[in-house]
């Protein structure tokens, strides 16, 4: 299959209300053609609503939606060139796999033989050539998921929507299928919008992640940007693990913020923060535990869990309890051990309270 | 979408110019109207007769046509078309209601002129086509303004169902209201209240040693007693069925099917054979104990007895679900907190069932109020509303206004119960079944409760069995109570066939075939309307959905007798003249049984994951294609079930039908009523037995079809959804 005529997606002040509940507050969104964007967030944050608005399964209460530069705000789902992969796969149980994949083509008016040919090609692409005659119930979960993907992409949609496509698969299969989806998306140059609540999944597949919270966007950016430069305590906590330590910024000069954790002075760049209380983000991997004699923040190990590759500690310090991940081959500490906690200046990020 | 509107415009204009606007004497299918050259279309009526008011639909459609081609901006075009088509619709309907030949003439002064004063006949095929075209033009335009997610199919379906319910449920009921204010020579508001609160209706004399209470009080008392009785009996059965190791559970299950296939008089007749003056039990008791043979059965106790027998299975069916709905882990939790089985039942299970019990009670209450067959056969001097309505219409002193008042009294009772059920019970549901798997076992019954249940339920089950076996015996006995010799006479009189000439000589054949024909036409229509409504309710979101659901469910709360009366009051006159036709019978079945179809459809639809139709829609199919290629194939079993159930209900229905049958279209149940009134119990019972066999055959056939289909289809739905 050649490259698809991928479309961009634009939301301009889109609002969605269900009765008294506001599911989306004035959302502005720009997704470039050929990009895979993930909508990530806790349940009820509005990510699925956003996806369904793109699909046309919900109508916006206000604002404007464009797909491929065209205003589609009032178009029905039927007439939008968008296809969707559902969490439950939504394969039609009374049709064979081939009929499922060809469904969108035949209802679009394509001749049966041509549709069957295209469907076979689509199945080939997801590695299911020869499975056409089976019923969906005769396939495994992973295979059903791939049929659902094939059914969506044979229509050569301007935008492919995926609604938590992996949540019904077991952990090992999940990784495999998500790599496959990413591969197909890149090979065909599809615009894809991917909804998930699993941050690891989002980090792994996305060009860009849009984190949503309370019906609005909390932060958008590449996975690395979100991890390295969270703009809020929520993002810091949601993307990867983080210790949030309350600090008092006593001086700001040239965008450099100065503050103290325990007995040590730190300074970091963050143009958005002013003097006063803030929170320091400490990634658990970037905290080192040393012998108590060393010069650092004194603490006591209150929990230690051995996980093979790594050891997870909880350390009680004067700055509060800290979650620390150490490599397993480093020197192990036991519960009750006194330790010295060492945090490098470069590893500290600041977020507003 | 402009083409679709253009098509409907063409259809509508054809309806106004080519088809006869009014009812034709020979009916549409006789095509007599083709032969005489000038079809009496709306156009010729305007030009030749001077019925100028028929211009409304034509004008509306022509204006819509101009708007369609003249206005460029789509939303503006849609809005204009919507307003014009709606105005045309309203005006066309209004002229039909106002300029009438007979019946209630509320606004006759509005139109002057001789032509208008002479009135006009009822709507015919042309008017029908024109009205439907206008309706669809309006709904399609509405969808183009962006309502209903712009889905013309869905909006049109909503429009059609709303229109049908309005015409065939609300319009007739409104007629009752109007008639209730009728006094000789006009209408009066002040006369209504004294008549409504008459002591004949609401009198409480019987409490103070007087002769008898008012009819409404009688009905109310009976309904309360029956509701209490059936709830207790039903609970006992449900507890035995779900919480004991009782051996013959399968037999109990049969109990739940029985009421569905029981023609309405059967229980009354069987009770007469057992406990009537010359009934078996009465005879034996007289012989053994020398008790006096009395007619105690004809009155309150007889009706009460019959209603308990009739409606206990319904309570049983409802309460099985309720008892099973109490989560085992709740009871296990109670037991681990060191409550014994009696305490668990008393303090945990029973309170959890309370809303369910209230539901069963209200159902029994409504059923008892609406019941017509039992009071008719056994009522004697105990007057209740449903039968009094009947006698006010067909009796020697026919008094439609009185019937209307009685109907309103009955309607207000059932509606209050219906509203109570929806708003009070509906909100206080303690359903403890969630999506989570809930293992564990329900607590067994404590010995005392178990004993009580057995003592209540088992004798009752035995009695039910005896009553039903009487139907079989009774039909083969020459003259019950006097001549017990075996005979086929009743069957040959009813269903005799002269094999030499091949003629059907039995007296029942006519009504039997009419019943089967009309039921088999009505059944698929009922299922269709029901499932379409269910689809809209479960899968579509639209403004006023709650009101929509409420109005489709409302006909459940309208007793059959009230429906029957309202239909003859509304459809005996233009604009919609249907009495005496088979259409009115079909229509009454469709709209009476519609709630059943809707409930069944909702249940089936909820089991289909909504992502299936969303997937279809995002793949480019419109909602019509989605319904046709995805939903209907998957709903197969539910569709069949709805069809069979409506078929059976149509056969056993009597209360509404009895007002609407005509010499040409007589139904089985009203034929049986005639036999009962003549005292020909033998034929009546034999006919009932034949009906039961007919319905059992239909149900078994269905089971066969669904049974094999379920293995293939529903399993797949589940695996696909779960995997």
UniProtKB/TrEMBL annotation, chain A:
| Pfam families on file | ABC_tran, TOBE_2
InterPro entries recorded: AAA+_ATPase, ABC_SmlMolc_Importer, ABC_transporter-like_ATP-bd, ABC_transporter-like_CS, Mo/tungstate-bd_C_term_dom, P-loop_NTPase, Transp-assoc_OB_typ2
Q: What is its EC number?
A: 3.6.3.31
Please report the stretch or stretches of sequence annotated as the ABC transporter domain.
Answer: 9-239
Q: What class of enzyme is it?
A: hydrolase
| Claim: Translocase is one of the keywords in the record | yes
Annotated Gene Ontology cellular component terms? ATP-binding cassette (ABC) transporter complex
Would you tell me the protein name for this molecule?
Spermidine/putrescine import ATP-binding protein PotA
The organism named in the record is Pontivivens insulae
Lineage, uppermost ranks:
Bacteria, Pseudomonadati, Pseudomonadota, Alphaproteobacteria, Rhodobacterales
TrEMBL record, chain B:
Keyword Repeat recorded: no
Q: Name one GO cellular component term.
A: plasma membrane
Location of this chain's protein in the cell? Cell membrane
Task: Kindly give the membrane topology term recorded for this protein.
Answer: Multi-pass membrane protein
Question: Is the keyword Transport in the record?
Answer: yes
One GO biological process term: transmembrane transport
Instruction: List, alphabetically, the InterPro entries matched.
Output: MetI-like, MetI-like_sf
Q: What is its main location?
A: membrane
* Family affiliation: Belongs to the binding-protein-dependent transport system permease family.
Name this polypeptide is given: Sulfate transport system permease protein CysW
Q: What is the lineage of its organism?
A: Bacteria, Pseudomonadati, Pseudomonadota, Alphaproteobacteria, Rhodobacterales
């Amino acid at each position: 299959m050649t490259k698809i005529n991928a479309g961009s997606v634009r939301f301009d002040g889109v609002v969605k209300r269900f009765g008294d509940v506001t599911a989306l507050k004035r959302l502005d969104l720009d997704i470039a053609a050929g990009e895979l964007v993930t909508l990530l967030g806790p349940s009820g944050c509005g990510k699925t609503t956003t996806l369904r608005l793109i699909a046309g399964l919900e109508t916006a209460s206000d604002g404007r939606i464009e797909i491929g530069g065209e205003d589609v705000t009032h178009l029905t789902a039927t007439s939008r060139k968008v296809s969707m992969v559902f969490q439950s796969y939504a394969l039609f149980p009374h049709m064979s796999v081939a009929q499922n994949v060809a469904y969108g083509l035949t209802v679009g008016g394509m001749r049966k033989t041509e549709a069957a040919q295209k469907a076979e090609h689509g199945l080939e692409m997801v590695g299911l050539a020869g499975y056409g005659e089976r019923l969906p119930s005769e396939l495994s979960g992973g295979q059903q998921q791939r049929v659902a993907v094939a059914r969506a992409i044979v229509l050569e949609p301007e935008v492919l929507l995926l609604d938590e496509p992996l949540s019904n698969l077991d952990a090992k299969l999940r990784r495999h299928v998500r790599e496959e989806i990413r591969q197909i998306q890149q090979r065909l140059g599809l615009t894809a919008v991917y909804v998930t609540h699993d941050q690891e999944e989002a980090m792994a597949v996305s060009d860009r992640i849009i984190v949503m919270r309370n019906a609005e966007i909390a932060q958008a950016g590449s996975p690395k940007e979100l991890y390295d430069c969270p703009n809020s305590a929520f993002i810091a906590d949601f993307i990867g693990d983080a210790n949030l330590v309350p600090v008092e910024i006593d001086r700001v000069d040239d965008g450099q913020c100065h503050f103290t954790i325990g007995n040590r002075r730190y300074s970091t760049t963050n143009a958005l923060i002013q003097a006063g209380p803030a929170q320091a983000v400490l990634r658990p991997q970037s905290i080192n535990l040393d012998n108590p004699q060393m010069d650092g923040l004194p603490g006591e190990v209150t929990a230690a869990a051995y996980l093979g590759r790594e050891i997870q500690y909880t350390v009680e310090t004067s700055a509060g309890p800290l979650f620390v991940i150490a490599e397993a081959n480093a020197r192990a500490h036991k519960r009750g051990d006194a330790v010295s906690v060492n945090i490098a200046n470069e590893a500290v990020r600041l977020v507003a309270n | 979408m402009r083409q679709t509107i253009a098509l409907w415009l063409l259809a509508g204009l054809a309806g106004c110019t080519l088809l006869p606007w009014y009812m034709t004497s020979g009916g549409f299918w006789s095509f007599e109207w083709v032969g005489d050259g000038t079809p009496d279309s709306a156009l010729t009526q305007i030009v030749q007769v001077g019925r100028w008011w028929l211009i409304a639909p034509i004008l509306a459609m022509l204006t819509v046509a101009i708007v369609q081609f003249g206005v460029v901006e789509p939303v503006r075009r849609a809005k204009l078309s919507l307003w014009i088509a709606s105005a045309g619709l309203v005006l066309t309907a209004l002229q039909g209601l106002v300029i009438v030949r007979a019946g209630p003439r509320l606004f006759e002064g509005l139109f002057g002129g001789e032509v208008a004063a002479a009135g006009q006949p009822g709507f015919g095929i042309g008017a029908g086509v024109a009205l439907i075209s206008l309706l669809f033009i309006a709904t399609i335009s509405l969808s183009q303004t962006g309502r209903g997610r712009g889905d013309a199919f869905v909006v049109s379906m909503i429009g059609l169902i709303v229109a049908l319910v309005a015409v065939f449920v609300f319009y007739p009921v409104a007629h009752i209201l109007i008639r209730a204010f009728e006094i000789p020579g006009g209408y009066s508001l002040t006369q209504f209240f004294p008549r409504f609160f008459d002591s004949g209706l609401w009198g409480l004399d019987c409490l103070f040693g007087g002769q008898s209470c008012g009819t409404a009080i009688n009905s109310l008392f009976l309904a309360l007693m029956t509701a209490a009785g059936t709830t207790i009996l039903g609970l006992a059965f449900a507890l035995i069925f779900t919480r004991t190791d009782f051996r013959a559970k399968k037999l109990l299950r049969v109990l739940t099917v029985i009421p569905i296939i029981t023609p309405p008089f059967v229980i009354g007749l069987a009770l007469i054979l057992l406990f009537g003056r010359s009934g078996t039990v009465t005879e034996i008791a007289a012989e053994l104990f020398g008790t006096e043979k009395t007619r105690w059965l004809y009155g309150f106790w007889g009706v009460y007895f019959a209603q308990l027998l009739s409606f206990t299975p319904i309570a049983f069916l409802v309460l099985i679900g309720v008892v099973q709905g109490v989560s085992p882990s709740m009871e296990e939790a109670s037991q681990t907190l060191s409550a014994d089985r009696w305490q668990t039942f008393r303090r945990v299970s029973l309170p959890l069932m309370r809303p369910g019990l209230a539901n069963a009670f209200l159902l029994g209450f409504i059923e008892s109020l609406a019941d017509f067959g039992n009071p008719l056969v056994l009522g004697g001097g105990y007057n209740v509303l449903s039968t009094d309505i009947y006698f006010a219409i067909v009796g020697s002193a026919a008094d439609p206004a009185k019937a209307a008042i009685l109907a309103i009294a009955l309607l207000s009772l059932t509606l209050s119960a219906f509203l109570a059920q929806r708003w009070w019970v509906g909100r206080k549901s303690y359903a403890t079944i969630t999506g989570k798997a809930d293992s564990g076992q329900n607590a067994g019954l404590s010995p005392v409760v178990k004993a009580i249940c057995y003592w209540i339920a088992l004798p009752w089950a035995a009695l039910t069995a005896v009553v039903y076996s009487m139907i079989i015996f009774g039909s083969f006995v020459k003259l019950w109570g006097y001549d017990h010799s075996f005979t086929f006479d009743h069957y040959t009189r009813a269903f005799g066939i002269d094999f030499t000439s091949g003629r059907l000589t039995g007296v029942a054949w006519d009504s039997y075939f009419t019943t089967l024909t009309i039921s088999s036409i009505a059944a698929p229509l009922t299922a269709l309307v029901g499932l379409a409504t269910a689809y809209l309710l479960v899968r579509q979101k639209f403004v006023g959905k709650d009101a929509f659901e409420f109005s489709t469910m409302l006909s459940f709360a309208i007793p059959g007798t009230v429906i029957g009366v309202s239909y003859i009051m509304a459809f005996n006159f233009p604009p919609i003249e249907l009495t005496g036709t088979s259409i009115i019978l079909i229509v009454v079945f469709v709209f009476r049984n519609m709630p059943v179809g809707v409930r069944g459809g909702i249940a089936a639809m909820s089991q289909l994951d909504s992502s299936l139709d969303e997937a279809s829609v995002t793949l480019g199919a419109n909602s019509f294609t989605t319904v046709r290629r995805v939903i209907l194939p998957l709903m197969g079993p539910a569709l069949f079930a709805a069809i069979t159930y409506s078929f059976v209900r149509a056969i056993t229905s009597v209360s509404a039908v009895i007002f609407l049958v005509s010499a040409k279209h007589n139904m089985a149940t009203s034929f049986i009523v005639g036999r009962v009134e003549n005292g020909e119990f033998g034929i009546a019972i034999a006919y009932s037995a034949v009906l039961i066999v007919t319905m059992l055959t239909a149900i078994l056939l269905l089971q066969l079809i669904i049974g094999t289909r379920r293995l293939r289809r529903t399993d797949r739905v589940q695996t696909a959804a779960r995997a």
